[in-house]
Amino acid sequence: MRRRSVAVASDAPVADAARGFELLEVGHSYGNRVVLSDVTLHLTEHRIGVVGGNGSGKSTLARLLNGLVLPSAGRVLVDGLDTRSDGRAVRRRVGFVFQDPDAQIVHPTVAEDVAYGLVNQGVPATERAARVGEVLERYGLAGHADHPAHLLSGGQKQLLAIAGVLVMRPARIVFDEPTTLLDLINTRRIRQVIEALDQQAVVVTHHLDLLDDFDRVLVIDGGRVVADGPPSSSLATYRRLMDDR
Amino acid sequence: MTLALYVPRATVVHRAPAGLKLLSLSLTGVLVFAVPTLPVAAGALAAVLAVGLFVAELPPELFGRQARTLLWWLVALLALHLLTTDPETGAVAVLRLLALVLAAAVVTATTRVTEMVAVVEWLCAPLRLVGVRPARVGLVIAMALRFLPVLAERADAIREAQAARGGPVRGLRATVTMVVPLLVSVLRMADTVGEALDARGADDVPAQPSWRRRTGGRLS
Predict the structure, then answer these.
(1) Chain A partners within 8 Å of B113 (Cβ)
(2) Per-residue model confidence as pLDDT tens for chain B (220 residues)
(3) SS3 for A161?
(4) What is the ipTM metric for this complex?
(5) Domain ranges of chain A
(6) N or C: which end of chain B has fewer CB within 10 A?
């Protein structure tokens, strides 16, 4: 397991960075529909993939990891913080990248959108400008700083969405199908971005080749984890599962 | 559709505080209505163009684009005055409207949305006394500017999908058949936008409102 030190927002309740994500007998249902049941996991690896068919519960699992969804049963802990009682601190530690960047970009221009999370964190204007400039430079968006976000290409929008998360310096990042709407070139670009991250990343995806070099891959089916291991074995299980249908 | 009109330049107009620019815009409006004469209206228009083109270094096309969108309104306004008053009053009304719209374009093109929003939040500060959160008002304005083009794109996509399946392309029927899928799309997106705001620290209230925690409502 690789782990490097990552700067984290300071005013969070006491967290133990070594503990990672802990899901303890977690279940979740929407009304009468059970989407996850009895999931117990301890996620500490640097790169973790999550695959599963449509409606298998993987997006719900992703949202449980940063408290966007609270479990109907069981507990989800992030570095020892409970998503139910320490939701704000958890969301500061866990960035989330959505499938559709259009829904994640909330300000009209590129630089303003990247700065949004820092404004919420109360980061002073000078530091904010420096951090925004740095992250835009890193993702090739510096020349677009004052451009309207809706005029960017799909790949640039997803990079902007990622930049908006990374500028907040979360300790961990959850990606929910970040490449589903992208072409091959942009998918490769996002893959490179994920590979270069210092942070722990949990990636929900249908692009299986994205997970080749990951440390661990979970296969979700019918709201349960049916395979959990290195990519080679988990992805083989997933392919067999899909072939049988 | 471009609502974010900011044109980055390093000019004194760009550096001027947003509040000052909005105040100048308001005073220009008061002046051209308080002194409804041809020299004042024409002078205001000339001043706006001079500031916009030579001080703020904005491209002439920006003014042309703004004027074109107004063209038929201006023609109608002039025609109305020719029928009901006199040509001079008509010319004053037309020049006045044009001057104000172009002045607003100069302010928009030289001011970042966040600066504009900061002014709105400052103006809304007294409303704290009645429970209004100025930051929320500012966020609503910024999000409106951000999402209007997105909604227009989604509406276009729905219209094209319907046209591809033989549906009406334009007219009332096309609009009516587009409303429901657009509404569904907007509601779905609103759900994700709400999550994104939570994820980016917009608030410290629980991610899900209590009714959603009880009843659900999300697809996995």
Answers:
(1) 107-109, 112
(2) 445 578 889 999 999 999 999 999 999 999 999 999 999 999 999 999 999 999 999 999 999 999 998 999 999 999 999 999 999 999 999 999 999 999 999 999 999 888 888 898 899 889 888 888 888 888 888 888 888 888 988 888 888 888 778 877 777 887 888 888 899 888 988 888 988 988 888 865 334 433 343 344 443 3
(3) helix
(4) 0.76
(5) 21-100+169-243
(6) N
User: H-type helices in chain B, by residue range?
Assistant: 12-15, 18-34, 38-50, 60-84, 87-110, 113-124, 134-164, 172-199, 210-215
Q: Which of A79, A41, A72 is nearest to A216 (CA)?
A: A41
Residue A59 contacts residue A204 (beta carbons within 8 Å): yes
Domain locations in chain B as residue ranges = 12-111, 132-215
Chain B interface with A: residues with Cβ < 8 Å: 2-4, 6, 8, 112-114, 139, 142-143, 145-146, 149-150, 153, 189, 192-193, 195-202, 204, 206-208, 213, 215-220
Q: Does residue A12 sit at the B interface (CB-CB below 8 Å)?
A: no
Give the β-pairing of A81-82 and A224-229.
Answer: unpaired
What's the topology of domain A21-100+169-243? Rossmann fold (3.40.50)
Token representation of residue A151: 């005029």
What the block records as the tokens of B13 is 């107009």
- Give the CA distances from residue A235 to residues A2, A238, A242, in Å, rounded to whole numbers and listed in that order: 22, 5, 10
Tokens of B10: 């390093």
In chain A, the residue whose alpha carbon lies closest to the alpha carbon of B145 is: A108
Structure tokens at A238: 């997933």
- What are the pLDDT digits (tens) for A120-168? 888 998 999 999 999 999 998 999 998 888 889 988 999 999 999 999 9
Beta-carbon contacts of residue A172 (< 8 Å; ≥ 6 apart)? A20, A21, A65, A78, A93, A94, A95, A199, A200, A201, A202
- Of B142, B208, B18, residue with least CA distance to A120: B142
